[in-house]
Design a protein that fits this description.
The chain is elongated. It folds into two domains: 2-165, no CATH class; 170-289, Glutaredoxin (3-Layer(aba) Sandwich). It is built from eleven helices and five strands. Strand 2, helix 10 and strand 3 form a beta-alpha-beta unit. 55% of the residues lie in helices and 10% in strands.
């Protein structure tokens, strides 16, 4: 009877390990959203948010592997318990402040608000407690294997998804704008002339582009931190005019104005690659950004 109970506990612990691993994988698959989510709290810089998001993913994956392998159960139990408890306290704070955003527990694969995630964590805590005192499998040189697994998992996360700030220069080289098409659109008066006067941030977005939404959010957080140009923001959407209320509600972007540009002209200016953000001063391009290289302004 005792052996059957221990086997059941091992199975349950392994299932919890799979949940942690699944959580890590889904976070990695939607790493951009996790970065912006961490950055949105305005505690850490964008570059630190890149780092923390990947360390969090690696930590969850390592913890899941420990639970799944059923070795050193005392360590994995208390580490899992502390992790779930800390996450739950954090989520409770978000819930009490009225935050209903996706908390990225399972990335964008399964969207959950703080209240839903709290319920999920409490269930996991109860299941974890039921596995207390499970007998561990014995393995030789456990500390060495533990260190090697942790290093391998962390390295894998950073290899699969290197932080954007490691490749800013490379991204910027591939961020292009068709100056001739931009000037032609200006000459045809299909782009407001005011955009070429003074300091402006001109964002060429599509309402259906997921990365355009993420770019808008990133820019607004940088602006709130005083780390991006204070020039007036003007958005140029590609294609026919549509209802933009949902888009602005989602991104919280504060633009002085926005307009629509015919699809052919829009594609010519951007070379079909969006989002494209231009920092203009009296019509001269000072900086140009794609989603990947949006960062703190130099000025």
């Amino acid at each position: 009877m005792g052996r059957a109970i221990n086997i059941a506990k091992i199975g349950l612990r392994m299932a919890l390990g799979l949940v942690f691993i699944f959580s890590a994988i889904t976070k990695l698959l939607s790493i951009d959203s996790l970065e912006i989510y961490i950055f949105s709290f305005k505690i850490f810089s964008l570059e630190v948010s890149f780092l923390l998001s990947r360390l969090l993913i690696a930590f969850e994956a390592i913890l899941g592997i420990w639970l799944l392998s059923n070795i050193n159960n005392r360590y994995s139990f208390w580490c899992s318990f502390a992790t779930l408890a800390c996450f739950t306290i954090f989520l409770l704070f978000l819930s009490l402040t009225g935050n209903q955003d996706n908390c990225n527990c399972f990335g964008e694969f399964i969207k959950m608000n703080p209240k839903e995630s709290i319920v999920k964590n409490l269930i996991m805590i109860l299941l974890l407690i039921s596995t207390y005192n499970t007998k561990s499998f014995k393995i030789k040189k456990l500390p060495l294997w533990g260190a090697l697994i942790s290093i391998a998992v962390t390295a894998t996360v950073f290899i699969i998804s290197p932080p954007d700030n490691w490749r800013y220069e490379s991204y910027q080289k591939h961020t292009e704008v068709n100056i001739e098409a931009l000037e032609e659109a200006k000459a045809k008066n299909i782009i407001p002339a005011e955009l070429f006067e003074g300091e402006k941030i001109v964002c060429l977005f599509s309402l259906k582009c997921n990365y355009c939404i993420k770019a808008a959010k990133k820019i607004m957080i940088l602006r709130d931190r005083g780390e991006f140009s204070n020039g007036d923001i003007h958005i140029i959407f590609g294609g026919d005019e549509k209802d933009t209320r949902e888009w602005f509600d989602n991104t919280k972007m504060q633009a002085k104005s926005f307009s629509f540009l015919p699809a052919n002209d829009f594609l010519s200016i951007t070379y079909g690659s969006i989002p494209l953000i231009l920092h203009l001063k009296d019509g001269e391009i000072i900086e140009k950004y794609s989603f990947r290289d949006i960062r703190k302004s130099n000025d």
